[in-house]
Every structure is written in C-alpha cells, then in structure tokens.
Amino acid sequence: MSGRSLNVTDVAIIGGGVIGLACARVLQRAGRQVTVIDASEVGRGCSYGNAGLVAVDHILPLARPDVLMGALGMLADPLGPLHLRWSALPSLLPWLMRLALASRPSAVSNGTQILAKLLREAVPAWKHLAVDAGEPQLFRHQGYLTLFETAKSATAAEAENRLLRRHGIQFEPVSATCIRAMCPALKRDMYAGRFHPDAIYTTDPFELVRSLYRRFVADGGTVIEGQHVRAILTEPGSATGLRLADGELKAGSIVLAAGSGSVDLARPLGVKAPLTRERGYHVMVDEGEIPLNMPLLFAERGFVATPMATGLRLAGTVELGARAPDWKRADILRRHAEDLFDRPGLAEQSQWFGDRPTLPDYLPMVGLVPGCRNVTLAFGHQHLGLTLAAVTAELVGDLVNGRDPRVDISALSVSRFC
Known about the structure:
The chain is an alpha/beta fold and 418 residues long. It has helices at 18-29, 46-49, 65-76, 89-102, 105-132, 151-166, 176-182, 205-218, 262-266, 328-341, 385-400; strands at 8-14, 34-38, 82-84, 139-140, 144-148, 172-175, 192-196, 201-202, 222-225, 229-235, 238-244, 247-256, 276-285, 296-298, 303-308, 311-320, 348-358, 365-369, 372-379. A hairpin with a 2-residue loop joins strand 15 and strand 16.
C-alpha cells in the first residue's frame, strides 16, 4: 500500500491502469481524497504493452459493415490482423450478433460523432496531464504516419479522409516519394500515406502510468495494490463502499475503471456490459536495427511500429476467444517488420500479450449508474485506452463533482445495452 492507510475515503477508484490513474489525478487536483485499488501492480495490464499512440484519427468505430465484410477474408488468412479461436465461437456469438447490430449506418454515424469529439480533445488533455505529472518528456510530438501499401487500400481510405476533414481532425496526405524521404528505413514501397503532425506518442507507456502514480502518492493519494474488489456495497439509491479481500472500504463516490474486470462488479448494479477481451501482442526489438523517428501504422497489416525508450515496439493484431497466448501471433508482427524493412532475422528483446476490454459497438462505457448515482463507470475503451485516458478522466471529474460533462456523452450511456 502506498500513501495513508485508511478504511474511509472520499473517492474510491477500482483499477490502476492508465484510465484509473488519470481519473485519480484529475479528481485529486479538484480537491478530492482518492484511493486507487488494483488487483495487481499499477500499470501492468493493457497500459503496459500498448503501442503508445494518442491515435487521433481513429474516429470510426470498428463495428461497421466494411470491417465485417473484410473480417471474413482476414479470418481465413493465418497471418491476417484478425484471428478467431473457432472453439470459442459459441460463447462469442451473442457478442458478434451485437457487433452486427452496432454496424447499422445510424449507429456508426453516432459512434463516429462521439469519437471525433473525444479525439479532438485527446491531445490537449494529455499535454495538460503529462505536465501535471511532472514528466512531459514522456511524450514526443513528431506526429505519426498511417501507410497504405496498395492503390486499393489508399482509394478506400479516401472516404475516411473526407470524414476526418469533416470532423476537424488534422492530417496531411503524403505521396510515395515523400514517404521514402520521411522513412528511409522502409525498404518496401508504399502507395500513399496520411501524416498527423499534431499527434503525440509516449516513449514508455508503463512509465507514463507510474509517473501519474508517483505524483498522485506524493500529493497524498492512496494506492492499494494486489487487492481484489469483491463487490461494490450498496444501499437503496447509492453505493456505500467496497468489499475487499481483507475488509471493507467506505467511500462517498466510486469510479469503476478496471477494464475487463469491471463487468462482474457492474452487473449487480443492474448494468449490462457485453464485453469481450480482444487479445493483442507486441514484440520489442533493438531500435538500432530499424531506426524510426516517428510511429508508423500499416493499415492493411493492422500493426504499429513505435520507437520507444527501450527499443522499437511492434504492436497489434486482434485475437478473439483467446485463452492461453498464441505466440505465433507475436511472430507475425516480427515477420511483417522483417518484410517491410528488409531486416531478416530480427532479434527480439521480449514478447507480450494483453486483453483489450471491448464492447460490441466499439465505444467505451462512461457515465453514472442509474439508481446508484455515486458510481461512475469508465471502461471498455478497446484499442483507445491510452488515447482516451486523459479526456475520459476529465469527463469522470465532471461527473463525480456534479457537473454536466463538457462533451455530450449520451452515446456512451451505461444503459445502452439494457
């Protein structure tokens, strides 16, 4: 335990990942006494192994018709960015049916509207929070490139480009010639690209969370690690605290930001959250083997190469229905890099996997629990956990402090699956 030992707190936050710690810091700055509880070590979940990007162009929910159609082809490709464990299909069917329902044009339009609003705020929110944590150097400001290898994919991206412009997301089209100049390490020609000059990325996602943790504790916050929350304790109309493995913690307000672990705690509150775990992988290699000065996103291959403090991170892929890790999925990332950069036999530093908490409409669940108005939910951020953590924390701060959120978050309603 870090900070003061206590059995009463003003605000209890369940989950010590990037979203939980961002919420803790925003609420602490607003004058609240905050305790964070995590079942493991702070920052060791998906926050540890993500690609490090504040992905400002991801305004389109992945629940949409073109993705569903393309998924059939990807599922048949053993090296594709999407893989389904067929033995898990029966248990996944209800989620997949909701995914299809969420792919209706009206639902996609609504999802795009809210994601665009949040993503326009994502970089300013993170800049403010990183400065507050005392370590702004953990972010770099070179932007990133999304790359298209074929004319077909570049043409398909034009519709997305128009959508980005319409929603005020800044980018610059990049020709094949410019890509070669910007990324001399690439040995395979790209057809076209999209450069996001205002985007930022972190050189160490784990250290970013730990920096928030250190500042939070230094300013009087309490962190309880290695403790499972057994239940949210309630009385009619409100929550009263948490049942932990070794006792109870009374709390005036509760924020549930435990990623995939949130579902079981939310269910007794009447919240239906049909969440699945999307498994992703990363591989770390020596940055000297593939020198990059900015992250590169390879659209067709579904992976990202990000230069980090300890090497080059190759991150991506989606695996549904996974149990034990399939390290062949990590090997795919390395093979893509060997192909794209003509570096056969890349030496790996390490491999990692993590489970992204994903709701079928690919939107997070953020809001107050009906009938239990001192409980705020903030989970289900899928691939955008790091990206949306700071702006989510600002919204949670508004909700916990009794203010209307600065953005209309009705599309993220905690009741939308009831």
